[in-house]
Amino acid sequence: MHMTVWGNRKPLEREMQENTQDGTPGSWFRVTIPYGVKYDRTWLMNSIQRHCSVPFTPVDFHFVKNGARFFVQEASTASALMDVSYKICDEESRKVCIPVFVSPSAAPYSVRYKLKPEEMEQLKLTLIKRFNVSKQALDLQRLCVDPDLVGHDIDIILNRRNCMAATLQIIKKNFPELLSLNLSSNKLYQLDGLSDIIQMAPTVKILNLSKNELKSVWELSKMQGLKLEELWVQGNPLCGTFPDQSTYVRAIRDRFPKLLRLDGQELPSPVTVDVDTPCVLKPCKGSYFGCDELKSLVLQFLQQFYLIHDCGDRQGLVGAYHEEACFSLTIPFHPEDPAPSSLCKYFKDSRNMKKLTDPHLRVQLLKHTNRVIVHTLCVLPKTQHDLSSFVVDTWFQTETMLCFCVSGVFKEVEGSSQGCVRAFTRTFIANPASYSSLCIVNDELFVRDASPSETQSVFSIPVPTPTSSSMHTLSQEQQDILQASSTPPEVNL
């Protein structure tokens, strides 16, 4: 399918030739990518550049609600960008359904109100005075009232995209190794212009946005992709929009998975998918994902989840669950069966609704809150899952919810049942925290004895016995062994 907002390109190219803007031949054109905020900006722009038949320089890139927007000049460039719509492919040359809309526009804000050369020079001198060389830190708090700017009658209001763009341009040229940026007390209520920080100052690890006027955590999504380790947001209205501290931390960390400190407080080690780490997962036979982005998200999540799950100490999974998440375990075990079941270790936590008639016990066996869930997981037998056996089905998706099932086999690795092979089906309901992580809100696990054919085919390549280390203390050697020794799942779409 090909979508454009123009029916005929010839009149537009003629319009381009006839118009002038600020004395320069040509018109401006606005390019909009609906829901562009959900994509990594670098990947998105590189993909558009790669599929566009002519080179171009995007001007004034920013986000509008959930969409991404930038401007180009020349009708030929606009026409070429129209052809990019729905043609963007992922790394494996599979199409990703991303529409690109192009329409005539006035000159972008940052061009119409571009700072004069003398203003840029004074702003540069002001920033240099505020730069700490030893710490590679730039302190721009209360920049709008800096005497060196006010004395020259220069208004630098960082809410304005032209002012933020000029500031970032100076940072890129003069402080290329900047580590810390303080933007506190600048009355910031939106971060459109700051989205360029990912390209202009990618080395920034510490960002202070405290004591501003940001009302929604969505504003922080405009900088998603910046590898922050420390962030200050306190003193903004958005901090009062969360019911508790854990929800606040989770929302911030959804956007910055590598974050170690928030508002000066140390954060627990995160359980997220690192998109910089190459995914060793192959596709699962018979699996269905719906789209490539979803496939990558789910497979990376499963790899991370079961790596931690099989490492002995499952406490590292606490962060993978929503604070109010629910979990239930079911086995095909009948308490009146005369023969003992090999699944007896799972029986006390089994919530088999066909067999369970006591309403109070039904409630009791529904594990509620992330810490109770992980405690339950910790007392279950230690396991080693065969990733090559996984079959995944993503059966429902909205912007705020993702439902998927994974089936496969595992074996127990200690105790009286060591070596016993089990089959399982696990149904997850999760919130897509970002393009790189998931937050589980409901987890339903069904465990049974594996059939002879499942037992025979399991673990065709030997898998090392898990250690008692948690994910957070896994050595590099252990991770290399796990990656080298286990056969990853395959997906045939």
Quick recap:
It is built from 15 helices and 20 strands.
What Rg do the Cα atoms give? 27 Å
Structural class: alpha+beta
* CA-CA gap between termini: 21 Å
The proportion of strand residues reads 15-25%
Oligomer: single chain
Shape: elongated
- Unreliable runs: 1-25, 272-285, 461-493
Describe the main β-sheet briefly. 7 strands, mixed
Helical stretch count? 15
Q: Approximately how much helix is present in the residues?
A: 25-40%
Q: What's the rounded overall pLDDT mean?
A: 78
Q: Please state how the strands of the largest beta sheet are arranged side by side.
A: 7-8-9-10-11-12-13
- By DSSP, the count of extended strands is 20
What does this structure look like?
- With 493 residues, the protein is an alpha+beta fold.
- The chain is 27% helix and 22% strand.
- It has helices spanning 9-18, 41-51, 75-82, 109-112, 117-129, 147-150, 161-174, 197-200, 245-255, 292-309, 344-347, 359-364, 370-379, 452-457, 476-485; strands at residues 20-21, 24-25, 28-33, 59-64, 67-73, 101-105, 131-132, 137-139, 180-182, 206-208, 230-232, 261-262, 265-266, 321-330, 367-368, 383-385, 391-397, 402-412, 421-434, 437-449.
- The strands form 4 sheets. A 7-stranded mixed sheet has the order 7-8-9-10-11-12-13.
- A hairpin with a 2-residue loop joins strand 4 and strand 5 (67-73).
- Helix 5 (117-129) packs across helix 7 (161-174).
- The radius of gyration is 27 Å and the shape is elongated.
- It starts with 8 loop residues before the first helix and ends in an 8-residue tail after the last helix.
